[in-house]
Each structure stands twice: as structure tokens, then as C-alpha cells.
Amino acid sequence: MTLREALDQAQAALAARSIEDARLEAEVLLRHVLDLTRAGLYSDFYRTLTEAQLARFWQLVKRRLAGEPVAYITGHREFYGLDFTVTPDVLIPRPETETLVEQAVRLAGDRALSIADIGTGCGAIAVCLAKHLPTARVFATDISPAALEVARRNCERHHLTDRVILLLGDLLAPLTGPVDMIVANLPYVRTTDLPAVNTSGFEPRLALDGGVDGLNQIRRLCAAAPPYLNPGGALLLEIGLGQREAIAALLTRYLPGAGIAFAADLAGIDRAVIATPGRSAASP
Length: 284
Known about the structure:
The chain is an alpha/beta fold.
């Protein structure tokens, strides 16, 4: 069987299960088996697969058909132009989270800031901020030792162990003092909505479940944030669909007088909120 034939059959099988981007996912799995770039795959499209390669490919396709995310199958995920190691111990970075990174980079400018990435998971946000803000010092916290191990591997991979400091603990507790910017993508899915998340059962529930209203951890962070922000600092959070008003109320309660702005993702959904205590936040 040629690469093209295998790819066509895998695409059909994935599409039959209503898996979005079936062609792309089939390509990713086949490239993983053959260790090829996308250009390499298509330049050798009519090569015949060995029996071992074909068996390995269909083994991975069957895992995807069973619902396992491609990122866990391959162990990799691209985010903000960088490649990250991911395992079932961490949330898979989403494209919409790039909105949060974009806003943090925009707000930081060329200032040498101290930044805390709370609930870092695989370290994607922390690593991207350190890469794009070369004068920044980033503290990345997580309550999961297994997640921090994945983050450590990604920091090493991108040569950032000197500027990304990994800290074990709950939310802001591991920090030893205030910072200039707090950035967080905490769980915000309502417990009743978890079954609708297509990776539910594979990703850590701790990284998805935001409680009854989806705001359990975000509420705790907002309440604890004020003493951890330097004067002129900022708090940036990722939020979910329909949470704008509730988030604004939380920030008004815990950071009275703060400027509050929202930024939409590519789908037009409010995805990031920027709170700047003591000054007005201009909408991006």
C-alpha cells in the first residue's frame, strides 16, 4: 500500500467517526510513523509502506478512533510556533490560548518584567513568554509534580531553564513575592459540561473542571492576586464562552478600580481578560 492509499483510507475511517480535520490528523499520524515533514510526505507520496510501517500506522489510527487525542499519541503539540512535549499528565495546548500569550506579549512590550504563569501544565505559556520577552523572568507554578516534570522537559528543550523557574504548589502560594504580571489558563469548564469536551476522559480532569460555574480556580486566583502584583502590574486570564460578565464582576470585586479589557480569539469569542489595577485598560 502506498502512502497516498494509506492516508486516504485513514482519512475515510476518521471522517466516518465525525472526527474534525480527518485529513490533517491522518497526515500527522503517518508523518509520526515515518518521521517525515509534511513536504517530505507529499514528495514521496507513492512510495510503498513496509508491513511494519503500515501496522504501526493503523495501530495509531485505531487509538485515535477510540478517542485518544493525536497530541497524546504522538507526544507533541505545536503552540505559538513552537513544538512542545505533551503527555496525559498535562492539558493539551489549544490554539485559542495563543490569544492570552499575544496579549501578555503586547502588554509587556520591551520591559524587563517578572511574570508568573499559574497552572503552567506543560509549560507552553511560560516558554512562549520567555522566548518572546527575552528580558523577562518567568515563574511557572503547578500543583502537579507530573505536570512540572513535563514543563521541565520543555524548558530544557527550548534552552530556557535559566529564565523559567518551575515551582510546585497551589496557584500563587509558591511565589516568594509580588510580580509584574500574572498570567493563567486555569480550568473553566463547568462540571456538567465536561462530557461535551471531546478530550474528556483523556486529559487530566484537574486541568478542565472549573466547578459548578466553571470559575472555582479563577475565583480563588482573583481573590489572592492583589498582594502578588507590583504597582502597575497586570492580571491576565483565559476565559470561556459566556463568562465575560461573571469574570468582570469578580475582577471588580477583588481588584476594585482596575481597568478591565477583553480580547477575542479567532472565532470571535472573548478568550482573554486583562485587568490592570490602578489604571484604565485600553481594549486591544
